[in-house]
Structures
1.
Amino acid sequence: MGKSTKGTVEGYRGLPVSFHLRKAVEGSRKLAILLPGLGYTAEAPVLHYARKSFLLRSFDVLEINYRYDSEAYSGFSQTEIVEAVQFDAKAVIDEVLSSNSYEDYHLIGKSLGTIAAASELKRADFKFAKAIWLTPLLHREDVYFAVATCHHTSLLFMGDKDPYYHEGRFTQLQHNPNITFHLIPGVGHSLEYPDQLSGSIEVLGNVIKEIDAF
């Protein structure tokens, strides 16, 4: 394992945003970027094991640890939170890429993080990046359009009990040949069953197995 770096950048409206760059090996040319959800942090199950998967494959892993559920953001509107996640993700990635050079990129967005992924995948450096969409916010036009038109090789995971799942939209998205879709019956926004512990663990294992092979 190489050295890890923790840092902070000035984010949206001057508020600090922390990040953690974990080095798999010295000189890795591969970077996975974790874009968490609002309350689903980089330590939550899917992102925790996704991080392990990438580190074991000699990817450096960048975790962007914005915390929009903290007191500092309590007065923010939904529009401001969207602006913040786009601004903050860009600021952290700019900071990390200013002093590190990579050739192979994977972006992993969960929920709110899919808004940042949709924005960041337009970056020239990420022209050939791969993407993993975890419970994307398909009710939002920007996220829906980004997935529908995505030219990046991608995985997408969603449960049919997710409040942001829309059958019609999901069906339309499946026309995109660049994305492998995984619709999981009975699971919600956390990619878990509400009352099946062993079933939820099985879902987690299946998701990580797909990510591990990606």
2.
Amino acid sequence: MKLDVFIDRPILASVVSVVIVVMGLLALQFLPVAQFPEINPPVVQIEADYPGASAEVAAEAVARPIEVMLPGIDNLLYFESTSSNDGHVSMTLTFEVGTNPDIAQVQTQNRIKLAEPQLPTEVIRQGVSVKKATRNLLAVFVLKSTDPQHDAVFLSNYATRRVVDDLKRVKGVGDAWVFGQSNYSMRIILNPLLMRKLGLVPSDIAAIIREQNRDYPAGTIGREPAPKGTELTIPIIAKGRLT
């Protein structure tokens, strides 16, 4: 490039400099602000639960059918899965840098739909979650109580019902969860000899419990058609779920 042009024409050089500065100021408001370039690959997390299943059974009945459907997703680099003895299955999908995480989540969800006919009914009933995730934790909070009556199960249940949802609603928070989550539950001990005599299997007992553990409308007293002179209409509230 000949520099003599700008040396011989100082006015032209000044005009070009002003144009460059103005264009820079106009483009400044559209430039992204980042200290470091985007180097973290997008991650999608798949989670499912198979109650009562061992790690081996959960891996074969839940993880395996899903893994067969995952290859072919756009920009998928690799995936890994873990199964625990409580029937929980967790799968992590890693995509190429620059992949739109929303599109990756949608494509993963579509593959889960294709695998659902091969999954156990109990897994489908509880649902398979597909969420965008990150390998980096922004913050960790510890919940404790000085009251000895508030054990770990109580604190876990309190955090799940009262804290986690509020944290998820904070602007910029992608997800929040409870480490070592414990939930209140009921354990039902079955008599195998009596069940064999009655011709029942554990799935029959589970189906009956699910049917009874529901909230049904109990009706209303004084609702039309009602006798003349009825002045009050009282809804009937009944306990439907097991407590």
3.
Amino acid sequence: MDAEVMATLHAGQPAEAGKVPANVRVVDFIPLDALLPSCSAIVHPGSFGTAQNALVHNAPQVVVPNDLWDFHPRAELISPDPLLGR
């Protein structure tokens, strides 16, 4: 792929990334306000904050859902109304 890729991860995750292609740089957290102005696009799991930052910086987005998107439907299996316990 003819692209420079930067993967920003949470503290400790870069060590878990292992070997990555030469065009990929794995780093600890970088504020999106500092990174997005130089990006051609962003790939992310769809969190509100990340999507909002991408919109502010007019960065094209590719949203890749993760297992947390499934949280609310699973909560409904436990109780149809978690607040009332019905």
4.
Amino acid sequence: GCRVAAPITLTFQPSAGVPESDLGIQVLQGGQLDLHGAPYKPTWTRLSATVPRGSNIIYLQDSVSSWQPGQLLFVTTSIYRDEYENQNEVAAVQSVSSDGRTVVVDSPFQYSHYGGSEYQSEVGLLSRSLLLRSWPGSGTTSRGAHVRIMGQGRLEGVLSYQMGQRNVLGAYPFHWHNAGDAGRGVSYAKDCAVFASYYRCFVVHGTQNLQLTDNVAFHATGSCFYLEDGVEEGNWLQHNLGAFVHVIGRPAGGVTQSGEVFVQGPDLAHPADAAAGVFYA
């Protein structure tokens, strides 16, 4: 699809006569959803050098020359478990060097972020030109809007902010629900982002051959890349990043979740994915 560079925001607001379960976007069988935001590649990379506390400069392994001033990024913790001491940090891009490998942010980092030879903190881009968000008061109940796709869904360069409904099955930021055979390359989510999700992030349920590539998820409750039934086959998860994901305990009708990635089937490809600050994934 044609990728839209101009900023567009869709805010989902509850109204009389609209049940909470219907708030958001629902694509019925036979329907099609196309959302194509501007390409900002790569969507995430890793540090090439340690960022000391008090610095506002980060050095990266890959060029991010498409990232723009004012966009939000996050740098993941480099300590063992971020639920105990959150050292993930969000900052705004101030400038990007000509080669794209040095980024100056708008404020100094409060913590050091490691970028040595053994491992390196990840750096992900949160901002997108297309923004789907819940109304500002949704945080009081953790019940936001959600996207449920039962037909075809092609998403690129879309940010979901404060979406999903806490511990409500089927109400997630991006959810392919009993869509059947998505057809490799026909339905996908590419270089999208989920930020401050109330419940999970990218959920695949009863759907085969879906592509999830180059996506980032940050500050979310429940598993972020989730294959629900274990019968889903042929799904391709590649180069996705999940970070700062919060344990929800035992959700309704599910099993205990503690990680960025929760899968129940063997027929799944997920090369080059990454999870930061996770006890297990």
